[in-house]
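Dear Dr. L.,

I hope this message finds you well. Following up on our conversation about the binding site, I have prepared a predicted three-dimensional model of the protein together with zinc ion. For your records, I am including the exact sequence and ligand specification that went into the calculation, followed by the structure tokens. Please feel free to forward this to your student if that is useful.
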Amino acid sequence: MNSAAPAPTAAKASRPAVLDLHTIFSWLLADGIVEKAGSKAHYAEAQGILKNGDAGMHPLTAVAQCKLISAKPPHRQMTLDALCEWVAGKVGLPFQRIDPLKIDFTQVADVMSASYAARFNILPIALTPTTLTVATAEPFKLEWELEISRLSRRKIDLVIASPLDIAQYIAQFFALAKSIKSANKSSGQDVALRNNFEQLVELGKLNKQLDANDQHVVNIVDWLWQYAFEQRASDIHLEPKRDVASIRFRIDGILHQVYQVPAVVMIAMTARIKLLGRMDVIEKRRPQDGRIKTRTNGGQEVELRLSTLPTAFGEKLVMRIFDPEVVVKTLPELGFPVDDARRWDELTTRPHGIILVTGPTGSGKTTTLYTTLKALATSEVNVCTVEDPIEMVEPAFNQMQVQPGIDLSFSDGVKALMRQDPDIIMVGEIRDLGTAEMAIQAALTGHLVLSTLHTNDAPSAIMRLLELGVPHYLLEATVIGILAQRLVRTLCPHCKAPDGELNEDIWHSMVGAWNIPKPTTIYRAVGCPECRQTGFRGRTGIYELLSITEPFTKLIGTSTDVAALRRQGVADGMKPLRIAGAMKIAEGVTTADEVLKVTAALH
Ligand SMILES: [Zn+2]
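The resulting structure of the complex is given below.
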């Protein structure tokens, strides 16, 4: 530390150099919060948590996870907030719980970059003409203080805050600030959009009725969309609560709270969005749905699918974002290994037969189908689809929407399509015997049919169709390939770090008898501003591709044992999902946790 830096208010004579476990425990003992008898065991526990935790875990976070009960009355639990408040007292600094609604993040984000803030784990939270308030959980690591004081030309006021809050808000504030600025730039308005949130918060305090066409509301909705697109969100949730309402984004399959706004502001935002989606703005007690087409700052068209739901505190609105870019991806970009991509191409270019894609909801089945169909839809080939709903309007396909209200089911849809001289038919999902029979009939009359099923793995798809009542000889005559798939999050390339110690036993329990050498290096998630501190950025598919062979066909008729089907599939070149996942771990693309979460053990 630079000795010229202004000393914090109550610097102790014998200040430790760093706030580590040793310092924390010596203070806990000195203050009688931990008794001597138990202190060694608690210390060891905290040390273990720190060692096995994420890189950069703060020692206070580890101590909080020990759930210590103070030995001093009133014997309260030493939660992370309680520990931070106590440490603040020890170093003579104020403790502050960070309230995102009170922070003008566009202003404070100007004083340093996100990476600078992340490097020192500090968060600027308030700016006056003379002072800059900075939150930290590292009261002794102040090498940044002089530099920031000089650059901002202000005196630095330090406050102690929770290390978890600081890490979370470093990721959020700087991204928010950047997004608001670029929205401001692109709209070219004189009115500073950056003040909108503060103004809305002020308006909210007045309890004034806000109009859906209020310019602030218009701007804030536009900004929200741009922010969601930039953050690669797949869904935006507007959730009313009693006083404040939450805005959450789903990114790479996981929900993140991105902001809170006063309830009245959200009511106005919801009204604005419903208006644009041509929904009934007055009706709030009935679920509704709608669509909006908008553009990104880069000029790309984006479709939003809206749905509302009445909740105890008002109308909840969810917007699903459909990014047209997903359909121009290639198989390798979807995560297909070279070998599987070649086998998939071979199957999908056959003139007739049924190809099934299986997996739970949200496993990327639709993306695989659209990508495949898009590659097949040339001017000589008529691609027709029956879907529920149509997830993406694609000019190269003839798409039909299932409408139960007018008796247009999947099987009716296929029947109607057959009169339209199709070459390739995509049926959204096979849910019943009627649809399965229509798909089989289409395949038997010389069409290539692609569809989806809800089963956990590829061989189980055969069992599922038999259970629906499809005779085995019809399956033998038509089904040519089955693809099971899952999505795993991919490690953020900006912050992933080698994780040396992959246990030999864990690797072998994963890959079993498969001869896949243990990778020399595997990687683990760390977290940085680029990935909102999650350590992951984007997702990739893992695939189990079963090509139906002659010996496999024979088994369908004679055996109802899924294990036998699976063994034959493997003999024919199928790699089980778990193995496909292990290969992604070995490539350094994802982690063992991600793969174990979505795949079953080898049989
Ligand atoms: Zn990262």
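In brief: The radius of gyration is 29 Å.

With kind regards,
A. P.
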